[in-house]
Design goal:
By secondary structure, the protein is of the alpha/beta class. It contains 10 helices and 9 strands. The protein has helices at about 15-25, 45-50, 65-75, 95-105, 135-140, 155-160, 170-180, 210-225, 235-250, 250-260, and strands at about 1-10, 30-35, 55-60, 80-85, 90, 110-120, 125-130, 150-155, 185-200. Helix 1 (about 15-25) packs parallel to helix 2.
Length: about 270
């Protein structure tokens, strides 16, 4: 089973080589690896060139942002399965063999997610983060999460959605998964850690700069899924769904209570 991985790179030279090596060093997997860079100026292009002979394709051209870069990468992908690893994240050893085995074991699945280790800028583990059963209702209320670098999907599911929404600058992966679910994709979880999701001051998840964009996305996706604007009932419904989420996943609740929420770790600096 061939797996196409796309990495979008832009001025993340500090982490890029670790991301590339984490993919190239995967064992027992048929990998097509595509790297996209719209014009980094920090030494990233030199790192990419260093690994040219081991990469399936390099795309060096301007784009309209991360979602557009991913669309360009996947337009050239030929794998049965797709996944994407940001230039500051990593795959854990054996991740692609585990995900390939999971799709073989679950032939009816279109999207399969594992869990992720949250790491800091030095690669040190901060905490664990668990993907959760995906549902459109849960996503509409912000009460479900899939760890993006630990989530892989069939190429047909990607193509059915038309790809990433280029105008989405905060949660293009979440909107893609919503599109897949609305097209009837079946989601599965495996209880395996597949990636390292890095929090560092410039990453979207840990930066307060994107707070308004994330709020705007949540409203947009709520309307897209439920077909109405939020009203007075919805904060209560959201709180109930989040409570059920915590009850269902005591491991995740323990991580949150003992180590704090992920989102604000760097935003306070």
């Amino acid at each position: 089973m061939k797996i196409s991985i796309v990495t979008i790179s832009y001025n993340q030279a500090q982490f890029l080589e670790q991301a590339i090596l984490s993919v190239l060093n995967q064992e027992d997997a048929d990998i097509e690896y595509i790297v996209v860079d719209p014009g980094s100026t920090d030494g990233s292009l030199e790192i990419i060139e260093r690994y040219r002979s081991q990469l399936s394709k390099i795309i060096l051209e301007p784009d309209a942002g991360p979602a557009d870069g991913l669309n360009k990468g996947f337009a050239d992908a030929t794998g049965d399965l797709f996944g994407f690893v940001n230039s500051d994240d990593i795959l854990l050893p054996g991740a692609l063999k585990k995900i390939s085995d999971a799709f073989i074991a679950h032939p009816g699945a279109d999207v399969i997610s594992g869990h992720a280790l949250i790491i800091d800028e030095h690669g040190k583990e901060i905490r664990k983060c668990y993907s959760e059963p995906f549902s459109l209702l849960g996503h509409a209320y912000g009460s479900t999460i899939l760890m993006q670098p630990s989530t892989f999907f069939r190429s047909a599911s990607f193509e059915n959605t038309g790809g990433f929404n280029v105008s989405n600058r905060s949660n293009w992966d979440g909107e893609l998964f919503v599109g897949m679910a609305m097209q009837g994709a079946r989601f599965e979880l495996i209880d395996r850690f597949l990636s390292g999701y890095r929090l560092q001051p410039e990453s979207i998840t840990s930066s307060g700069k994107m707070h308004q964009s994330i709020q705007d996305y949540q409203r947009h996706i709520f309307i897209k899924i439920l077909g109405r604007i939020p009203d007075w009932r919805d904060p209560f419904i959201g709180n109930v769904l989040r409570l059920f989420k915590h009850i269902r996943s005591p491991r995740a609740l323990y991580e949150r209570i003992s180590k704090g929420p992920i989102y604000r770790r760097h935003a306070k600096k």
